[in-house]
Write a structure and sequence with these properties.
Order of helices and strands of chain B: HHHHHHHH
Largest sheet of chain B: none
Shape of chain A: globular
Largest sheet of chain A: 5 strands, parallel
Number of helices of chain A: 12
Number of strands of chain B: 0
Structural class of chain B: mainly alpha
Oligomer: heterodimer
Number of strands of chain A: 22
Radius of gyration of chain A: 21 Å
Mean pLDDT of chain B: 86
Low-confidence stretches of chain A: none
Chain lengths: ~375, ~150
């Protein structure tokens, strides 16, 4: 019996487990392989919906499904937060003190926001990277009549790298549609000398922001927030007042990975093509947890899952793993409430955004509804 | 054709300063297909004025989007699923059942919609006197016999 354990019930873990279940159907039916997915939540959440949630354009039933419904029947689901990954002996320990042995391990535990690393952010800032945060922001935006809204990228890397730009564009549309745009100033800040870490996306976004009269502050590294004065203080020595701060907090890998000694500089060291965890035998990493120079986006985890599933199945069968991940990334970009574009790129080819249109916006809306087929590994 | 080409080159020379000369192959194509190209250009112009051309370009961007979002593995997976679905849908047994199913479902729904109390055990047994019910049950039992997944 060979034991495969997938840690994480997001898109990366779910797709990897489902692809493995299909690929290894014969071995699973014969009892030669056991496939487990361990996650801390019974529900699977489609996180890109949080952006829409912040504007009241979706609700929990649309972005939440029981994890069990999305998994192939041959995958054993364990809902129990991981406490530690041990490499000798090879096993995963969970909160309830159970342990699960593994011959092959896939780390797909995602990333988490850590607003507590920025003084004052938790008290004075809103964010849309969690369900609670997006729901709270929804209520704040509905009530926001006039003043300055700052969309500030505080921590890089973060989940869904284009989401802060989308937030700025959608805020512009939101207040225009309500006839309050002239009473609301929107400011977008970014820590480096352009408005996005990807040069091609930054080049595309700069005139789009300007056209919407969204003020951009670059080289803007947030040091702390003063909740009493409602002011952002930067490492550069500047101050920026706000009435509503939407701060993109720092992100981190789940704490158990660091406690298990599997991270370096906060993330799991991963081979950029094979996705094997460096220095570990029979262990792969997928999605946000890796230290790769790719977006922490669902599409990345999805594409990576195919590589890991193929290589892991090959190893189970004693064959050489040949699948390689090429850095492929695909992201929709909402440019308002009724138009969107997208970017596709990989390690060797930069993105080239196409003209924004309602058709692409509709494609994004349609994808939001069909995401569950993606999670099942159908497409 | 030589005269037409010469005229084209003359007209081209007017704007040569801005756009450069028309390449020979283009001039030949214009000369040979002038009438149809003229009609096509008029359609194109009308589409542009109506905004249809822009819509068409935007729709075509969706084709590019799909191509760029997919991978070889995803195309293979989709084709496999489409093949499985098509094979199941065209299987004579599935087609025969699908043909009978709507009427059976309508009858069952109609019976369930009445406010009558559920049948007693003896009432259910009485229904077994109906040969069609017995045939239906035998069908379901036969189905059940073949449903379990194959054992290793």
């Amino acid at each position: 019996m060979q034991d495969i354990v997938v840690v994480g019930g997001g898109v990366g873990g779910t797709v990897t487990a489902n692809l493995l279940a299909e690929e290894l159907a014969a071995e699973l039916a014969a009892g030669q392989v056991r496939l487990r997915l361990i996650t801390d939540q019974p529900d699977h959440v489609y996180k890109p919906a949080f952006l829409y949630r912040a504007f009241g354009r979706t609700s929990p039933p649309a972005y939440r499904r029981p994890q069990r419904e999305l998994l192939h029947p041959a995958v054993e689901l364990i809902v129990d937060p991981v406490r530690r990954v041990e490499v000798d002996p090879r096993r995963v320990a969970v909160e309830s003190d159970r342990t699960f042995p593994y011959d092959y391990l896939v780390l797909a535990a995602g990333s988490r926001v850590v607003p507590e690393r920025t003084p004052g952010l938790g008290e004075a800032g809103e964010q849309f990277y969690t369900e609670e945060g997006a729901s709270r922001l929804y209520r704040r935006l509905e009530q926001f009549a006039a003043g300055t809204i700052v969309v500030s990228v505080i921590g890089v890397p973060h989940m869904c790298p284009v989401a802060p730009l989308e937030m700025a564009f959608m805020l512009d549309a939101f207040f225009r549609e309500r006839g309050r745009r002239d009473q609301v100033e929107i400011v977008y800040t970014y820590p480096i000398n352009r408005c996005h870490s990807n040069p091609a996306i930054a080049q595309w976004a700069a005139p789009e922001l300007e056209a919407r009269h969204i003020r951009v502050e670059t080289f803007f590294n947030v040091e702390r927030i003063d909740p009493a004065r409602k002011v952002i203080e930067t490492m550069e020595g500047t101050e920026l007042p706000f009435d509503l701060l939407i701060g993109i907090p720092e992100h981190a890998a789940p704490a158990f990975l660091e406690a298990s000694g599997l991270t370096k500089d906060g993330w799991v060291p991963t081979d950029r093509h094979t996705l094997e965890v460096k220095g570990q035998e029979g262990m792969w990493a997928v999605g946000d947890v890796t230290d790769l120079p790719v977006s922490k986006a669902g599409s990345v985890a999805h594409y990576q899952a195919a590589t890991v599933a193929a290589n892991l199945a090959a190893r189970v069968r004693g064959l050489p793993p040949v699948a390689r991940y090429n850095g492929k990334t695909f992201c929709f970009i909402e440019t308002g409430s009724d138009a969107g574009t997208y970017v596709e790129f990989d390690y060797d080819h930069p993105p080239k955004p196409v003209r924004a249109s309602r058709w692409i916006h509709w494609a994004k809306l349609a994808y939001n509804q069909t995401y569950w087929l993606t999670a099942r590994g159908v497409v | 054709m030589t005269q037409e080409r010469s005229e084209l080159n003359s007209r081209a020379a007017v704007v040569e300063g801005e756009t450069g000369p028309i390449p020979g192959a283009v001039a030949d194509a214009l000369a040979e297909n002038g009438e149809s190209l003229g009609r096509a250009l008029r359609i194109l112009s009308r589409m542009e004025q109506e905004g249809t051309l822009q819509e068409l370009a935007d729709v075509l961007a969706l084709v590019k989007l799909i191509k760029e979002a997919l991978t070889d593995d995803m195309v293979i997976g989709l084709a496999q699923r489409a093949q499985h679905l098509a094979a199941a849908a065209t299987d004579p047994a599935v087609a025969a059942l699908a043909g009978r199913l709507p009427a059976a479902l309508r009858a069952a729904e109609a019976a369930a919609a009445t406010a009558a109390p559920p049948p007693t055990l003896t009432g259910l047994l009485r229904q077994m006197r109906d040969p069609e019910v017995r045939r239906g049950l035998a069908y379901v039992l036969n189905l059940a016999r073949h449903l379990p997944p194959p054992t290793a």
